[in-house]
Amino acid sequence: MDELHEYRMNLNRREFLSKTSLGLGAAALASIIPGCGTKAISGLESLAGESKNALDVTHFAPKAKRVIYLFQSGGPSQIELFDPKPVLKKMFGEELPASVRNGQRLTGMTAGQSSFPLAGSYFNFEQKGQSGAWMSEALPHIGKISDELCIIKSMHTEAINHDPAITFFQTGHQQAGRPCMGSWFSYGLGSLNNNLPTFSVLLSRGSGRPNAQPLYSRLWGNGFLPSLHQGVEFRSGADPVLYLNDLPGISKQARRQMLDKIAELNQAKFDKTGDPEIQTRISQYEMAYRMQTSVPETMDISKEPDEIFEMYGPDSRTPGTYAANCILARRMAEKDVRFIQLYHMGWDQHGDLPNAIGKQCRDVDQPTAALIMDLKQRGLLDDTLVVWGGEFGRTNYSQGKLTHENYGRDHHPKCFSIFMAGGGVKPGISYGETDDFSYNIVKDPVHVHDFQATLMHLLGVDHEKLTYKHQGRRYRLTDVHGHVVKDILA
Question: Is 425 helix (H, G, I), strand (E, B) or coil?
Answer without folding.
Answer: strand
